[in-house]
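Question:
Write out your own:
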Amino acid sequence: MAETDTPDGATADGVAAGTQPQPRLSIVAQYVKDLSFENPRGPGGLTPGEAPEIKINVDTRGRQVEGERYEVELVISVNATAGGNPMFVCELTYAGLFGIANMPEEAIQPMLLIECPRLLFPFARRVVADATRDGGFPPLMIDPIDFMTLYRRRAQQQAQAAGEASPAAEPS
C-alpha cells in the first residue's frame, strides 16, 4: 500500500514526512496482583479516642514483558498501630500492563517508574480505601504521591551504593 501525502505534508498515517513517529504510552490492562488485609484485633481494632499511627511505604517496579509491553507494579504497604498494638496491615501490589512505543531507550525507565505509577495510583488508592473500610475501619485515603521524588531518591541511593561497592583506586 502506497503512502499518500496530505496537503499539510503529513502522510496518511498522520506522521509528518521526514519525521519520527511520536512516543506513545497506552494502558493495556490494570489489575490487583496481590492484596492482603490483616485485622489482628478483630472487632476491638478501633477504640474511640485512639489516634492510630499509620506508616505507609510505597515502591514501584517495572519490567519488560515482551516487545513494546511492560508490566509496572505499584506496591503499597500500610501498617496502623495504636498504643503500640497493631490495628491493621494492608499490603497491595497493583499492576498495569503498558504499551510503550517510539520512545528513546533512556526515557523508558523513568516512564515505567514515574508516569505509569502515577496513572495507576488513583485505582490502587481506591483498593486500599475499600479494604480498610471493609475491615471495619474508616477508609484510608492515601495522599497523592510524588513519584518523581521517589524515582530520584532511588537513583541517588543506587548511585551511593555503586560508589560504596566500587573499590577505591590505589595510588600509583
Summary: The chain has two helices and four strands. The longest strand covers residues 85-101. The helical segments are 105-134, 147-165.
